[in-house]
Amino acid sequence: METAILEKIQEDFKNRKSCLSHRIVICAGTGCIANGAMDVHEALAKIIREKQLPLTLSLKEEIPPGEEDPILISKSGCQGFCQVGPLVTIEPENILYTKVKPEHARDIIERTILAGEVITELLYKEPQSGQSCKNHEEISFYKRQNRMVLKSCGDIDPEDINNYIYSGGYMAARDMVLNKSPQEVCDIVKEAGLRGRGGGGFSTGRKWDLALKQKSPDKYIICNGDEGDPGAFMDRSVMEGNPHSILEGMIIAAKACGGTEGQVYVRMEYPLAVRRIQKAIIEARKSHFLGENIFGSDFSFDIHVMEGAGAFVCGEASAMTESIMGRRGMPRVKPPRTAEQGLWGKPTVVNNVETLACVPLIIRMGADAFKKTGTTSSPGTKTFALTGHVANTGLIEVPFGTTLREIIFNIGGGVLNAKGEIDNNDFKAVQIGGPSGGCLIEKHLDIPLDFDSLKSVGAMVGSGGLVVMNKSTCMVQIARFFMKFTQSESCGKCVPCREGTRQILELIDDVAQGRGTQKTLTLLEELCETVQETSLCGLGKSAPSPVLSTLKQFREEWDAHIEMNCPTGNCKDLVSYTIAAESCKGCTACVRVCPAGAISGNRKEAHVIDEQKCIRCGACVETCRFDAISVGGRV
Amino acid sequence: MLKTTANTEKLHNFSKVCEILDKFDRQPSKIIPILQAVQEEYRYLPEEIMTFVATSLGTSPARVFGIATFYSHFSLEPKGKYIIKVCDGTACHVKGSSGLVETIQRELNLSEKNHTTDDLLFTLETVSCLGACGLAPAVVINDKVYGQVSKQRMKELITEYKTMEA
Ligand SMILES: Cc1cc2nc3c(=O)[nH]c(=O)nc-3n(C[C@H](O)[C@H](O)[C@H](O)COP(=O)(O)O)c2cc1C
Ligand code: SF4
Ligand code: FES
Ligand code: FES
C-alpha cells in the first residue's frame, strides 16, 4: 500500500484544495501567538459562522454537498516577521495583513473575502519609504531573501501531515529507503557539500559516512534541537512550523548510516515545538513512515522526543548523549567521536535541526541544484535571527555569501538609533555567532558571509544569531554579557573553563567598575588565550571569543573605561548624571523620585545632582518630562 | 490533627510519584523526564521525594541530587504560583531586559538572592532566550508569552496578576 499512498494523498488534497474559494492563513508561531493570533483566529471563525458562510478548519474534513466553495482557515508556523505579527495571509488574492487584531476580523471577512477589497490600513508599510506592500513579495524584508528551509514554515499547516505530503513531503525519504543503498545516500549528501548548521560547519556526508562504517547492530540518530544560543530561534521555528521536514531528514540520515532509533532533543522552554513534533511523530507512525518496515521496506526506524532541562552545554554532542542517558550533561574527551561511540556506547549521529531540514530538499532538488546557491565552500542557504537595533527584526534566510551590508541595510531596513529612528550612521557593530562568535564592524560589512570567511576574521556562523548594535551600546558590557552567560553555563568539568571564565568575568568587572588598569587588559588577553587553548569542549574553547573580538575591534573603548569613562554611559560606576540648567523647569519631579535624596533645588529653579549621593539608578532620567537630565561619561 | 492532614497529604503525594515512576517504567535512564514530571506536580523537587525517587530507581540519592542541581530548570526550593521568566538573551538584553528585572524586583520586593515572594505567589527568573527574539524584550508568565514589554507594561502585568488572585 505504502508506495501509492503518497500520490493518493497528494491527489486528494489537490482536489479538496481546488474546492476552496479562499484560504486564510494565520501565523501561529510563538511570536504571533504572543501577539494574539489565536484570538484573531477565533474572531475570524466567529464572523464566518455568523454570516453562515461555509467554513472548514482543516482540509481533512469532508466538505458537505452543496457547499462547494468553503473558506479554509489554517494555521502556519512562524513566518519570520514576528515583529509585525499577527500575520494573516489571504489566498488566492495573495494579500498579507500585518498587526491584525480581533476587531479587524469583520472587515477582513466583509471587505476582503466578500467584496474583494484590499484594506490598506492593514498592509505593511516600508519604514523608510512609507510605501504599502500588498504581500510578502513586495516587502523588502522578504524580497531579498532566499527561503528554502523556511519556505514551508508559514505556508503548510504544521499539524497536518497531509499538508506536508501535498507539498512533496516524504517522497525523498521513500525514494531513499526503497531505491538507494546507504552508501549512495551518503554520497548524495557529500556531493551536495552540506555542512552542519549547528555551528561547527562539519561535512554532514562525512559524518554519516563515519557512522556507516561502524559495525554495530544499533545506531542512533539525534536531532539537536537544544538551541541554547541566546538570541537564536531558527530551530524553534522549523520545529514548530515544519516538524515533518525534520522527521524526514532523520529517516534519510538513518537510511544513510543504518540508524535504528532516533531522538529529538528539544529544550523544554519550547513547549509548542515539543507538542508539534510529538504530534508529527504520531501521525508519521500512523502512515508507516516510522516504525517497523517503513514504506513497506525491510528497514525499521522510530523516533522519540527528549526534553532538555535547561543546560546550554547539553547542546554539545557528547554531553547530549549523556543527558539522554539520564546523567549530568558533561562533554567528554574526543576521540572517539560521537559518530563512533555515542548514546549507550553505540555509533550516534548528532545533527542540527536546520541541517536535517535541508536534507529532504537536497534529495528533492539534487546535489547539483543545491550547490548553485551559496559559495563553493559553503553551499546552500543559512537562516539568521536578525535582532537588536535594526528596523526589521526577525528570522531570515539568505544564501551563504550574502554580505552583512545587504542583510542589515536592505533586509533589516537599516539601523535604529537610541530614539528608535532609522539612522544608518548610528551603526556600531554586529555580533554574530552568539557566545562563541565575535563582533564585526563597518569594515567587515562587505565580506561574503560563510563558514570560512567568518573564521578568518575571528567570528563564527555559530547557530546564526545576528545582533545589530547602535552607538549607544557599550562593548565592555556586551563582552561581559556573553562571558557571564558562558561562565554560568560551564559544566565545571575542566579547570581552565570553570575557573578561567570566572576570572575573565572578574577582570571585566574590574574594568566596568573603575578598578581596571592597562595591566588588567593585558592579563585579560592572556587569560582568554589560555582558556581558548586548554578547555576541553567547544564551550570553553570559544567562550573568550566575544571578549577577544571586542578587545580587538574596540580597544579605545576599553581604554576609556580604564580612564574612568564609559563613553556610552552604560557602566553605572563610570558615569555621572547632570541636569542641564537651561532645560530644567524646576518641577521637582526628580527630587521626589530620587531614592538617595541626591537632587536638590527650589521650585521653578534649576536643580542639581550631588554626585557623591547619587546611586545611579536612573529614576530621575525616566521621570523628567523635559529631557533635562543626561547621562554621560565621567570625563 | 494538623499532623494527620500532613501525613495523608504526603501519602497522596507518594502515590502521585508512583504514578509518574510507572509512566516511565521505573527506568533509571528516564530520570530527567521523571524529575520534570515531579516538578510539574509540586512546582519544585522536595527533598524526601528525590530520595524516594532514587530508592525506587535503585540508584543513589547523590546521583538524583547531582542531576537536580546540574540542570537549571530544576528547583530545590518551592516556587511561586506564577513564574515570571524575563528573557536576558542577547536580543532582549540589547533592548533593555535588565530594566525589567529591576522593575520586577522593586515591585515585588525581590532581590538578587530572593527570587520568590513570601506569599509564594511570584517567582522571578531570568532565562537565556525564549525564542521570541523578534519581540524583544520578552517575558513569559507561566506559559503565556508577552512581547515588547516596557517597564510600564511590566508593572501593569504584575498588577493584573495580583488582582486576579485577590
Ligand atoms: C557548548 C556547545 C553548545 C552547542 N549547542 C548546540 C545547539 O544548541 N544546537 C546545535 O545544533 N548544535 C549545538 N552545538 C554543536 C553540536 O555539538 C554539534 O556540533 C552539532 O549539533 C552537530 O550538528 P551539525 O553537524 O548538523 O551542525 C553546540 C556545541 C557546543 C560546544
Ligand atoms: S570546556 Fe567548560 S563546558 Fe566544556 S567540558 Fe570543560 S568545563 Fe565543561
Ligand atoms: S510567529 Fe508569526 S511571524 Fe514569527
Ligand atoms: S533573546 Fe530574548 S527571546 Fe531570544
From TrEMBL, chain A:
Keyword Cell membrane: no
4Fe-4S found in the keyword field: yes
Record CDD domains: TRX_Fd_family (cd02980)
MF terms (GO), sorted A to Z: 4 iron, 4 sulfur cluster binding; FMN binding; metal ion binding; NADH dehydrogenase (ubiquinone) activity
Protein keywords: 4Fe-4S, Iron, Iron-sulfur, Metal-binding
Pfam families in alphabetical order: Complex1_51K (PF01512), Fer4_10 (PF13237), NADH_4Fe-4S (PF10589)
Residue stretches making up the 4Fe-4S ferredoxin-type domain: 575-604, 605-634
Family label: Belongs to the complex I 51 kDa subunit family.
Name assigned to this protein: 4Fe-4S dicluster domain-containing protein
Organism: Oceanispirochaeta crateris
TrEMBL record, chain B:
Source organism per UniProt: Oceanispirochaeta crateris
Entry's family note: Belongs to the complex I 24 kDa subunit family.
Keyword Transferase applies: no
A GO MF label: oxidoreductase activity
Entries under Gene3D superfamilies matching the protein: Glutaredoxin, NADH-quinone oxidoreductase subunit E
Cofactor: [2Fe-2S] cluster
The record's free-text note on cofactor binding: Binds 1 [2Fe-2S] cluster.
Record: residues binding [2Fe-2S] cluster: C87, C92, C129, C133
Name of the protein described by the UniProt record: NAD(P)H-dependent oxidoreductase subunit E
Keywords, comma-separated and alphabetical: 2Fe-2S, Iron, Iron-sulfur, Metal-binding
